Amino acid sequence: MSSPVEIPIQSLVQIDLASKTPIYLQIANQLINAIQRQFLLHGNRLPGTREMSKKLAVHRNTIVKAYDELEAQGWIEKIPNIGCFILTKSEKEKKRFRPKNASLQLYATQCGFEFEKSNVLDFPSENEENLLSINDGIPDIRLTEVALSSRLYSSNLNRKTNRSSFAQTSLNGNLYFRKNLSNFLNLSRGLHVSSNQITVTRSLEMCIYIATEIILKPKDVVVVAALSYYVPNMIFNQKGANVLTVPVDEEGLDVDALRIICERQKVRMLYLTPHHHYPTTVTLSAARRIALLELAEKYGFVILEDDFDYDFHFDRHPLLPLASADQLGRVIYIGSFGKSLAPGFRTGFLVAPEDFILETKKYLNILDRQGDVLMEQVLGELIEEGNIHRYLKKANKIYQERRDFLAKTLKKELSNEVQFTLPSGGLAVWIEFKNNLNLMKLKQNAKALKLFIPQHILYQNQHISAMRIGFGHTNLDEIQEIVAILKQAIILSKIK
Asked: What secondary structure letter does DSSP report for 251?
């Protein structure tokens, strides 16, 4: 049997005094790790408890507890008056090569097998340095009603009558929430749906993914706007769809361009954001909405309507969704609920005919079987008690003030550089640069000035140089600072 002198204990076991894990368990776990990775082989004798305690500078009783733990788990065998020896299931490990004085790696840095790497699912880089940042339009977490949501969640968690719902799966979800959500959508969006026509998911993007899996087959034609949300495009490409684009103007998606495509080839699905088109924020006109529904009926394609920011409107009541006028079951309507609430209290939903909803639940039963029925219960109460309506009314006043202040500041500081149309709603402004500006250089200069601009909000090709600026997450002082830095970054970007 091997001598314990050969075992590089100090390189195999490193104690973290700041860890909440007891020291004896740290020692035991790291020795188990060494056994599993064959740094310690069958038959190796561990140092005695006194010798081990000296090597690791811990009390002998700590080593005794660690060895007891190893024995209880079946990793070592204690032989009285002789020592503790490593146990493994295979005697073949005796013959395997073990490098001398090697250090124990935490985990492999590369896979030991081949796999297909996606070239379409690369997400944009994040603000790792925590700089002042611009985004594509998200709510301000500082405005969220955390106290109310947390209080409702806590009370539901402690309510004994809810214990049975803990085991409920997302295959059925929380019926109470779906009933209240259907009422909310019917009142706010002019829909006429029941709880049986709604699927609740963790996010809007999950809704898009599930709908794509059900509707599309590889090589199916999907039409999107020439400028569109990058996540759905990634999902469609990953599915193997043939993605075609149509232009967008001041009235929204160009329906005539779509008609030409439909005349030439079979279109399976159209994806669009008609309320506030992403990224340009324009609203699809009423006339084009009617024409679009007529095209869907004539050519038989599916409309995937993404209404990601319907709750945020300022100047007038928003146009009703396409789904509100769909009588033939061709529109799949997706959106998010609680977007203005704390991150843990947000959810996505999908509205469709019942036969389609039944199919979505099959996918949810795989992707998210348990769901969060308690969170859904809280959201249902927020709707039923009217809290969500009061909160949205309050938040929209603040967001409108921020939109107006951003527009005023842009006109004052950058009127010679950018042009834009004030959006009627949403949490972002679409600006187009008047001069030919290298936006990647602008991004780099802004970062040097402590402003992070994510690449996915920059749009530049031979026809356009533009940017989507979200204002929801910033207060008035931050908006002023962002515009000031943008102004400096633009000046620097012009210097050759």
From this structure: T
